[in-house]
Amino acid sequence: MPGRHFTDQQMRLFMTLRQTHCVPVAAVKAGFSQATGYRLLSDPILPSQRKNSRGRRRPDPLTDIFDTEVVPLLQSSPGLRSVAIFEELLRRHPDLSPGIRRTLERRIRAWRAEHGPEQEVIFRQIHVPGKMGLSDFTNMGKLGVTVAAQPLDHRLYHFRLAYSGFEHAHVVLGGESYVALAEGLQNALWSLGGVPQDHRTDSLSAAFKNLEQSAQADLTDRVDALCRHYGMTPSRNTKGVAHENGSIEGPHGHLKRAIGDALIMRGSRDFEDLQAYRRFIDEIVGRINARNAKRIDVERASLKPLPTRRTTDYEEVTVRVTSSGGFLLRKIFYTVPSRLIGHQLRGRLFDDRLDLFLGATFLLTLSRGRAARGGSHSHVVNYRHVIHSLRKKPMALMGLVYRDQLFPRQAFRTMFSVLLETVGEREACRITVDLLALAHDRGCEAELAAQLEEDLRQQRLPDIAALRALFAPSPDNVPAVAVHLPELSSYNQLLNNTLVTEEAAA
Question: Which pTM value belongs to this model?
Answer without folding.
Answer: 0.66
